[in-house]
Amino acid sequence: MKNTEISDLFDEIADVLEFIGENVFKVSAYRKAARAIREMPQDIEQLYKNNQLSEIPGIGKNIAQHIEEYLKTGSISKYKNLLSEIPGSFIEMMKIPNLGPKTLKLLYDRFKIKTLDDLKRILEKEEVMKLPGMGEKKIENIKKGIEIYLSKKTSNRISLGIALPIVTSIVEYMKNVCINISPCGSLRRMKETIGDIDILCTAEDTKKVIERFVEYPGRRSVISEGETKGSIIVKDSLLQVDIRVVAPDSYGAALQYFTGSKEHNIKLRTIAKEKGLKINEYGVFREDRKIAGKTEEEVYEIFGMPLIPPELREDRGEIEAALNGNLPVLVEEKDILGDMHIHTNWSDGSNTIEEIAKRAIEKGYRLIGLADHSRTSKFAGGLTVEELKKRNKEIDEIAKKYPEITILKGMEVDILGDGKLDYPDEVLAELDFVIGSIHQGFKKNVTERMLKAMENPYLDIIGHPTGRLLSSREGYSVDIDTVIEYAGKTFTALEINAYYDRLDLNDTNLLKAREKNVMVCIGTDAHSVWMMDYLKLGIGVARRGWLEKDKILNCYHFKEMPLKRKKCYNV
Ligand code: DGT
Ligand code: CA
Ligand code: CA
Ligand code: ZN
C-alpha cells in the first residue's frame, strides 16, 4: 500500500508551502488530503484503478492529479519544483517534532540558519527568546523535538521523560471507557529509554475502547485496529503506542506479563515449571485449572513472593530477594522532602528565589537546595564571591517570609582543571552544601580531578557524575567505578541528576554505589520552575537502583542530613 508514502509527501508539500508563505487554504488542502489518505482503510492504488479517487473526502481534481502522477512515475513534479525553492536541509528540519514550518521560517529569516547544527546553536542564544511567540518553554520543546528526531534516526528509542507525559495524557483520555487502565512495559519499569508504549486495560465494552483509542487526538497514524488490540503512532514523538483489552479475571496476569522485563518473566516461568505450574498472560495454572490472575499480588503470592515493584523487574536478583524475604523497601515520592539542585536567576535560571520557593511549597516540599553556577562558568552566569554573598542575603530574606520551607544555600561549583574547586574553602564553608561538577575539559583527567575534589571537606556531592546526555553525549572519559569507590571512602554523595536528558547516575551505576554504601542526592537541575517536575524521573531511577530512603540525602531534614561537611560520619 502506498497510502503512507503519499500522505507523507502531501504533508511535506504542505510544510514547504507554509514555509514559503503560501496562502493558508492551499496549505490546508494538502494537509486534509494527507490525513484522509493516511487514515482510510482502502488501498489508494486500488481506488485509483477503480477511478474512485474523487470519492475520498477532501480530494479535489488537483490533488487527484498528483496522486495519479505519483502512482505512474514515483514522484510528483510539483514537489520537485517546490524543493528547489527552499534550502536543502529544511525538509529534514521540518520533520522535527514541535518545530513547525512557521517557526522555522521565523528562525531562518532572522538568523539565516541553514543546517540542523545552525538551528541547535541559535537555540542557545538569548536573542531567540525575543522573537514573537518564542518563550522558554517553546525553545525547550524544540530542543526535545530535535532530540526525538535524532534518536529516532539512530536508535529508535525515546527518553522516559518524553514518553511519560504522552502516556499520562492517553490514560487520561481513555479512562472513562475503561474499568482499569495502566501503562506496562518498559515505561512502567521506569527504564531510562522507551522503545514503545504499552497500555493495558479492562472494560465493559471492548469495541468502544479500541474505537476511542484510534481516535486519540494526538495520533499521527493508526497502525492496526483489532478486536482487543490497537496500535497508533503519536504525533509529537513518533512513538508507537499499543493498547490491549483483557478480561478482568486476567488483568493481574496480563499486567505482570506485559510489564516484563522479558528476562524477569523468563525467570518466573522457570520457577513456575519447577513447581509444576504454568504462567502466561491469562493466569497461573495448575494442570488446566486457573489458580491466580486477577491481581498482580495474587500472581506473585502463588510463588511465595510479595509483589515485586516494577522498577526492579530486570532479573538482577529481585526474584531471589523476594523469595528470601529481603526485597529493599524502595524510596517513594512521599519520602522525598525536596529538590536539591535548582538554579535561580542569580546564575542562568529563569526564576527568582521567591518564585522557586512558592512552587516548592505548592509541591508540598519541606526543603529546596538552590545551586547556582560558580564564577568560572561565565557562560552560565556564574557568581563572583560578592554576588554569592548578595544571593545568600536574599535567601535569608525570602526564608523569613516562607517559614514553612527550608531554603538551603547551595552552589554547583566547577571542578577546575587541577581538581580544585572554583571558590576558596572559606567561601565554601559558609554554604549549606556544595555540589561539585565538571563543566569544562570533559576529556582531561576527569577521574583524577574528581578524586582530588572529593578530598575537599566542603564538597558534599558530585553533580551529574558521568556527564552523559541521553540524546547526544556519551559522557566524560571517567572511570566511574573508581569515582564511586572513592565517594564511599570520602563520604561524598553522588547525584542523581533528574533532568530528562541526563538521568545521571543511572540505574546500573546506582547499584554499584549501593554496594559501596555511597549516599545519593536527587536534583532536577531545574533552570525554570516547571522543570522541577522532573523529580519523579529521578525517583524512578533511584528505585531502579534499589535505593532505600536512608541512602538519599533529600529524605532527611537539613538538621539530620548526613552531609560530608558536618563530619557526622563514623569513620
Ligand atoms: P521497550 O518497548 O523496548 O522499551 O521494552 P519493553 O520491555 O516494553 O518490551 P516490549 O514492548 O517489547 O514488550 C512488553 C512486555 O511484554 C515485555 O516487557 C515483556 C513482555 N514480552 C514481550 N515479548 C516477550 C517474550 O517473548 N517473552 C516474555 N516472557 N515476555 C515478553
Ligand atoms: Ca514497550
Ligand atoms: Ca510493545
Ligand atoms: Zn551542571
What does this structure look like?
- This protein has 24 helices and 17 strands.
- It has about 575 residues and is α/β, with parallel strands linked by helices.
- It has 4 domains: about 5-155, Orthogonal Bundle (DNA polymerase, domain 1); about 160-245, Beta Polymerase, domain 2, CATH 3.30.460.10; about 250-325, 2-Layer Sandwich (Beta Polymerase, domain 3), CATH 3.30.210.10; about 335-570, TIM Barrel, CATH 3.20.20.140.
- A 7-stranded parallel sheet has the order 11-12-13-14-15-16-17.
- Helix 21 (about 445-455) links the parallel strand 14 (about 435) and strand 15 (about 460).
- Helix 14 packs across helix 16.
- The relative contact order is 0.07.
- The protein binds 2'-deoxyguanosine-5'-triphosphate, calcium ion (CA) (2 copies) and zinc ion.
- One calcium ion binds next to loops.
Brief account:
By secondary structure, the protein is an alpha/beta fold. The protein contains 24 helices and 17 strands.
Q: CATH superfamily membership of the largest domain, which one?
A: Metal-dependent hydrolases
Distance N to C terminus: 70 Å
Unreliable sequence segments: none
Number of domains: 4
Bound ions, cofactors and other small molecules, one mention each? 2'-deoxyguanosine-5'-triphosphate, calcium ion, zinc ion
Tell me the layout of helices and strands.
Blueprint: H1 3-19, H2 24-39, H3 44-49, H4 61-73, H5 77-83, H6 90-93, H7 101-111, H8 116-123, H9 126-129, H10 136-154, E1 158-159, H11 160-174, E2 180-184, H12 185-188, E3 193-194, E4 197-202, H13 206-213, E5 219-225, E6 229-234, E7 240-245, H14 251-259, H15 262-274, E8 277-280, E9 283-286, E10 289-292, H16 296-302, H17 318-323, E11 338-342, H18 353-362, E12 367-373, H19 385-401, E13 406-414, H20 425-429, E14 433-437, H21 446-454, E15 461-462, H22 480-490, E16 493-497, H23 507-515, E17 520-523, H24 535-544
Parallel strand pairs: 4-7, 11-12, 12-13, 13-14, 14-15, 15-16, 16-17
Antiparallel strand pairs: 1-3, 2-4, 5-6, 6-7, 8-9, 9-10
Helix pairs in contact: 1-2, 1-7, 14-16, 21-22, 23-24
The protein binds 2'-deoxyguanosine-5'-triphosphate (DGT), calcium ion (2 copies) and zinc ion.
One calcium ion binds next to loops.
